[in-house]
Write a structure and sequence with these properties.
With 283 residues, the protein is an alpha/beta fold. It folds into two domains: 2-189 and 217-237, Stationary-phase Survival Protein Sure Homolog, Chain: A (3-Layer(aba) Sandwich); 255-283, no CATH class. The protein is built from five helices and 16 strands. It has helices at 15-25, 78-85, 115-125, 143-158, 222-227, and strands at residues 2-6, 29-35, 50-51, 54-55, 57-58, 70-74, 96-103, 130-135, 166-172, 182-185, 194-202, 205-212, 230-237, 260-262, 267-269, 276-279. The protein is globular, with a radius of gyration of 21 Å. The two termini are 35 Å apart. Residues 271-283 have low confidence and may be disordered. Residues 3-185 form the Survival protein SurE-like phosphatase/nucleotidase domain. It holds the Pfam family SurE. It catalyses: a ribonucleoside 5'-phosphate + H2O = a ribonucleoside + phosphate. Belongs to the SurE nucleotidase family.
């Protein structure tokens, strides 16, 4: 079993070591490949810094990482790290991706913006089961609590090898183990832990303010339970089409044949014809 550990806080974050130790304890071969700098808020971005058209790597390790664990700093967003790992960029394709432990909670619909969750969702789109773990503090004091919860979450993930299109998103309160009330399933709050508002608008600028959010109006949500001393677990689904019963917009045009495109080469092929009819620039 091969496990990739990544995050959005960067290669120097101690949260990487927590997840690496969890994976090692489960008998996995572990590789840490994390951004060379912070990528918080990167969501599932596939941005990177390239040198001569090549993805740049640096030889860096998070402090305290067991010596038997290989480690790379990657000049790329975490979702891109998961994406290229699925294609063998860092050795054999990982069987699991563990992302975090993020510094700060990733709760509610604000998980959309999380680079930690984005890395896990990117893995899931490639058919790799993934876990995202966050601790509710920018400067955590209780890593043992995060490790305990991550161990339970990873064990659950290992018991469901066929559930590869969803991400287990876990949040942990930064409290001592003996004060943790446990781990509970939770639905996503309609907000995140922090809310932004426009404070001032002027010529050429917009100034924002950020404040914590009161979760009392949504009992049982991930944010509410986290504030009350519970670790929370939520299942997130990777992007998919969901037409449901809604009638989607459509119309019939005047064309009688549709060109097809070979996306690997950018060559336009006429319908029913295997000869190129033109060239487009591949994105």
């Amino acid at each position: 079993m091969r496990v990739l550990i990544t995050n959005d806080d960067g290669i120097a974050s101690p949260g990487l070591v927590v997840l690496a130790e969890v994976a090692l304890a489960a008998g996995a071969e572990v590789l840490v490949a994390a951004p060379h700098r912070q990528y918080s808020g990167a969501s599932a971005s596939l941005t990177a810094q390239e040198v001569g058209g090549r993805l740049a790597l640096v030889d860096e390790r998070p402090p305290g990482l067991p010596p038997e664990v290989a480690s790379l700093g990657v000049k790329a967003a975490p979702a891109l790290i998961s994406f290229v790992a699925a294609y063998g960029a860092f050795g054999p394709r990982p069987d699991y991706v563990l992302s975090g432990v993020n510094l700060g909670a990733n709760t509610g619909r604000a998980t959309l913006h999380s680079g930690t969750v984005g890395a896990a969702l990117s893995a899931a789109t490639q058919g790799i089961p993934a876990l995202a773990v966050s601790i509710a503090s920018p400067e955590p004091q209780h890593w043992a609590t995060a490790r305990l919860v991550a161990e339970h979450a990873f064990a659950w993930l290992l018991s469901r090898p066929d559930d590869e299109e969803r991400v287990l998103n876990v949040n942990v309160p930064d409290i001592p183990v003996d004060q943790l009330r446990g781990l509970r399933p939770a639905y996503l709050a309609s907000f995140g832990a922090v809310q932004a508002r426009v404070r001032e608008k002027g010529h050429g600028y917009v100034q924002l303010t950020y404040s914590g959010v009161d979760a009392e109006e949504e009992p049982g949500s991930d944010h509410d339970l986290l504030l009350r001393g519970w670790a929370t677990a939520s299942l997130l689904t990777s992007p998919h089409d969901d037409p449901g019963e809604t009638e989607l917009p459509s119309f019939e045009g005047d064309g009688d044949e549709r060109p097809t495109v070979d996306v690997s080469s950018g060559t336009v092929m006429s319908s029913g014809d295997d000869r190129p009819s033109g060239e487009i620039e591949a994105d």
